[in-house]
């Protein structure tokens, strides 16, 4: 084997072994970590014709959390969420005369809960499974709705350093609301950033 191949092999071995040590240090009992996700969406829709309308919506999502490993690879902690949405609509129609109207609505969602996560043994990539439950209040213009949800999720933590990991995940949620009473199920794909406070 040439000197270049030996050097490359040594570097790869060092990276893999150090990543293993890094991920194992981060997932030990007594370690705290911070996690968070942010999101933004915007949409526009236009319906043409005598019953035409234009709608525009903008949504911001912030989801911070804080967790603690109660034993190796098993963490628990509180979750928080805040969603801010603006919805604007302008519509018109013709009935003997032209009529035009527009309005804007703002909705806010506040949620608090807790999640439990288990991390499988891994090196740079560490699989995980988890469950979470939360209580939330949402709505706007004096019309608020309360509810609860239960979520299961699976994901991967990709360690980019001893303290930081990127986490893509897939989740399935079951929610219940009041005013009026209703239930819903949701499937989601998301992304988090985790920071482990390792001595």
Describe the structure.
There is one protein chain. The radius of gyration is 23 Å and the shape is elongated. It has 1 helix and 8 strands; from the N terminus they run αββββββββ. With 199 residues, the chain is mainly beta. An 8-stranded antiparallel β-barrel has the order 1-2-3-4-5-6-7-8. It has a single domain, classed as Porin, CATH 2.40.160. It is 12% helix and 72% strand.
C-alpha geometry: elongated
Number of domains: 1
Structural class comes to mainly beta
Along the chain, the helix and strand elements come as HEEEEEEEE
The total count of strands amounts to: 8
Low-confidence stretches: 14-21
**Rg from alpha-carbon coordinates:** 23 Å
The CATH architecture comes to: Beta Barrel
Bin the strand percentage: over 45%
Helical content band: 10-25%
Largest sheet: 8 strands, antiparallel, barrel
User: Taking strands numbered 1, 2, ... along the chain, how are they ordered across the largest sheet?
Assistant: 1-2-3-4-5-6-7-8
- Round the mean pLDDT to the nearest integer and report it: 81
- Please report the distance between the alpha carbons of the first and last residues: 39 Å
CATH fold type: Porin
Quickly name the level 1 CATH class.
Answer: Mainly Beta
* Helix count, DSSP H or I runs of 4 or more residues: 1
Topology summary:
Blueprint: H1 3-26, E1 32-47, E2 53-71, E3 74-95, E4 97-119, E5 125-140, E6 143-159, E7 164-177, E8 182-197
Antiparallel strand pairs: 1-2, 1-8, 2-3, 3-4, 4-5, 5-6, 6-7, 7-8
């Amino acid at each position: 084997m040439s000197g270049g191949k030996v050097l490359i092999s040594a570097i790869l071995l060092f990276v893999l072994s150090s990543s293993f040590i890094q991920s194992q240090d981060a997932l030990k009992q007594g370690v705290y970590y911070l996690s968070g996700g942010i999101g933004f969406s915007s949409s526009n829709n236009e319906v043409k014709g005598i019953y035409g309308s234009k709608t525009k919506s903008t949504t911001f999502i912030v989801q911070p959390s804080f967790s603690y490993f109660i034993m190796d690879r098993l963490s628990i902690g509180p979750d928080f969420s805040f969603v801010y949405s603006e919805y604007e609509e302008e519509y018109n129609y013709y009935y003997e005369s032209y009529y035009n109207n527009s309005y804007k609505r703002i909705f806010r969602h506040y949620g608090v809960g807790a999640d439990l996560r288990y991390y499988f043994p891994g090196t740079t990539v560490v699989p995980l499974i988890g469950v979470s439950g939360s209580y939330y209040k949402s709505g706007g213009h004096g019309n608020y709705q309360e509810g609860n949800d239960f979520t299961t999720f699976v994901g991967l933590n990709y360690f980019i350093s001893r303290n930081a990991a990127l986490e893509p995940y897939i989740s399935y949620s079951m929610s219940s609301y009041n005013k009026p009473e209703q239930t819903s199920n949701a499937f989601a794909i998301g992304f988090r950033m985790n920071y482990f406070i390792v001595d």
